[in-house]
Amino acid sequence: MARASESQLLFELPPVPTDAIERRLRRAGHKAIAGVDEVGRGPLAGPVVAAAVILDPKRIPDGLNDSKKLTPAAREALFEQIMATAHVSVVAASVLRIDTTNIRQATLWAMARAVNGLSHLADHVIVDGIDVPPGLACRGEAFVKGDGRSVSIAAASIVAKVSRDRMMVRAAAHYPDYGFERHVGYGTPVHLAALASLGACPLHRTSFAPVRAVLANENAAGMADGVDCLDEEFLV
Fold it and tell me: What is the signed CA dihedral for 90, 127, 43, 170, rounded to 10 degrees?
């Protein structure tokens, strides 16, 4: 499996993402460059979501940045622009997949599926992080803090974030007492309090320690055997 080069860490991040990586790759003959990022590795509940985006070099939306550095309103506006001008694929790896493999493997699976699901075939992939997911039909490179370096990866981070947030808002309609619409599954004090009070729901990751502890307490008290899990199509 390819890994990010140590030399990449020697360079200062630009103030905002640029298309420098993409231009270098186009000079090398690549035409369809897919940026890839994920959202949702850390939450206690919900899927991990990966997006792959091939931007049109002539229609790159202004203001692209790491989704964590943008306001919700800015993310939503950029999401609409990306969807209107780029080739986009989004894949959610379910709680079942996360718990039966692990969060890293589920994330890499979702990334590869997102790239391979693009309607326009990519000829090079650039990924945020340290790993290039296995199973790609073309070569790829991984970039530490890539969502702060590359406009394509930044676009993927925005699409993944908005897509997952919308999924978790929809999840709140199914499980209204957990506050998913507010914390989107992260282990906030409100979420942990609800988890302790209500126990786990089918969206909780039983392989994550806080959820596992709640289930262990329930099982010890004879109250529950665990929770059902949801497949990739649920909430997508």
Answer: -20
Separation of CA 177 from chain center: 25
Residue 37: strand pairing partners: 51
Of 98, 101, 12, 11, residue with least CA distance to 48: 98
List per-residue pLDDT tens for the chain, 236 residues long.
444 444 444 456 778 899 999 999 999 999 999 999 999 999 999 999 999 999 999 999 999 999 999 999 999 999 999 999 999 999 999 999 999 999 999 999 999 999 999 999 999 999 999 999 999 999 999 999 999 999 999 999 999 999 999 999 999 999 999 999 999 999 999 999 999 999 999 999 999 999 999 988 865 544 444 334 444 433 33
DSSP state of 8: G
Alpha-carbon gap, residue 168 to 14, rounded angstroms: 32
Q: How far apart, in whole angstroms, are the C-alpha atoms of residue 171 and residue 22?
A: 36
Q: How far apart are CA 15 and CA 148, in angstroms?
A: 8
Reported pTM: 0.87
